[in-house]
Amino acid sequence: MASVSFQSISKVFPDGTKAVDDLSLEIEDGEFMVFVGPSGCGKTTSLRMVAGLEEITSGEILIGGEVVNFLEPRQRDVAMVFQNYALYPHMSVFDNIAFPLRSRRVAKAEITARVEATARLLGLEELLGRRPRTLSGGQRQRVAMGRAIIREPQVFLMDEPLSNLDAKLRTQMRAEITTLQRSLGTTTIYVTHDQVEAMTMGTRIAVMRKGILQQQGSPADLYGAPVNLFVASFIGSPPMNLFKARLVADNGLHWVIGNDKHRVPDEIVDAVPGLADFVGTELGVGVRPEHVLPIDGPAAGIAGTITLVENLGGSQLLHMEIVAEPVITDEVREIAADTDSAVLQTLEAEAGQQRVAIVARAATQPVYRAGDTVQLTVVNDQVHFFDLDSGKALQKNDNGRDIRGAELSQHRAEAIGNEGETR
Question: What are phi and psi of 19, to 5 degrees?
């Protein structure tokens, strides 16, 4: 086992595409780090540079404190699990798992013992004599995991290993891989575009966009304190509700949409003194679905028209429209385009109609129906504010200083605005 260190890593392809831009990140020994982001953000390229499958343009990668830039893949003591399993179809499960040991000319008796031990760990004992074509997707993925585990590498590298599985199997395998990694304690770097996988599996997550690291931290850090609109839009299922509001000073600070005025709690004002600089201007307001609450009683708060109700058993997701101006930035457009083109079209339509689609997570009672109009309130101390010009969050810290997101250097900011699609 070993730590992995990215020190100012960049990767530029021959056609000039900058896939990774000045990536610096420390991954501790035994940690489960997940790289997440939309297609073309540089996460897989970063993984392949660790494996030695892509040359590094600049910077250094260290494994266990040793610079590995110029080591061949086989010299790096890492094991990679691919999304297509990469099993040998003509070999049995036993032979697929044993292949790395046979390549090293390990004694036959030791191979047998280690394959059987690995098979027990993965629940493959009854499948050792079968060929890959006779296995389910989940069983094939476990065989691929077994081939990586049996090498006892310093680092596991996993490139979207669950993307070919159906939803039920993905959920099952997420739990199995997480439990297995914790029991083995092997440093693991896991790449996915699925933020649900990232949130449920990683001890730490690195969010990337156009080759640039946007934010890294625990799942709770990224969910509770996103540093910019990109992270706020990408992390969370359903994602954070975003809309524009005007900040006004009227016996305290309030954010206003339409005729609805919402007080900013004094503790938030004190913790984020820079918020007052936005009085009289528009800013972005973000609120998670669980912090949007339907309320009973006479008309008050924000009026929402329900367009769809998703009953999840223990809760309901209320999809609604409110009268407000949507936040449509390059970051939001990028995520919408990456996930569903229809979403982007909806955003464009909402921009013209000055209506915003939001989601609230509500209890199962009362029962709501499409077409109902409900009054909404928000948990005011759980509201996030964003500078619409920079896209950065106005964050509070222990000292009460204003932190407008993670400070990107000028060349990185320019790269976000000017680069074409990365690989």
Answer: -85, -35
Beta strand 384-386 with 394-395: parallel, antiparallel or unpaired?
Answer: unpaired
Q: Are residues 169 and 139 in the same domain?
A: yes
Is 74 within a domain? yes
d(CA 79, CA 47): 11
SS3 at position 371: coil
Q: What is the pLDDT of residues 60-119, one digit of tens each?
A: 999 999 999 999 999 999 999 988 888 999 999 999 999 999 988 999 999 999 999 999
**Do 121 and 218 sit in the same domain of this protein?**
yes
Nearest to 55 by CA among 66, 64, 65, 68: 68
| pLDDT (0 to 100) of residue 170 | 86
Name the nearest CA neighbour of 93 among 58, 123, 62, 48: 123
* Shared domain check, 198 and 292: no
Q: Computed over its alpha carbons, how large is the radius of gyration of the chain?
A: 24
HSE value, Cβ hemisphere, 13 Å, CA-based, for 219: 14
CA distance 337 to 334: 5
- Considering the domain architecture, whether residues 100 and 205 belong to the same structural domain is answered as yes
For residue 52, give the nearest of 66, 72, 35 by alpha carbon. 72
What's the token pair of residue 299? Answer: 């008309």
Last residue of a domain, one of 171, 194, 224: 224
The pLDDT of residue 413: 33
CA–centroid distance for 331 within its chain: 14
**Other CB atoms within 10 A of residue 15 CB:** 7
Q: pLDDT per residue over 27-42, tens digit each?
A: 999 999 999 998 889 9
- State pLDDT tens for residues 314-362: 899 999 999 898 887 777 777 666 665 455 555 555 555 578 889 999 9
Helices 137-149 & 93-103, crossing angle to 10 degrees?
Answer: 20
Mean residue pLDDT across the chain: 86
Q: Please choose, from the candidates 182, 130, 125, 189, the residue with its C-alpha nearest in 3D space to the C-alpha of residue 157.
A: 189
Q: Is 363 helix (H, G, I), strand (E, B) or coil?
A: coil
Residues 245 and 378 in one domain: yes
pTM to 2 decimals? 0.84
401 has pLDDT over 70 = no
Backbone phi, psi, residue 165, to 5°: -95, 155
Please spell the DSSP secondary structure of 92-105, one letter per residue.
-HHHHHHHHHHHTT
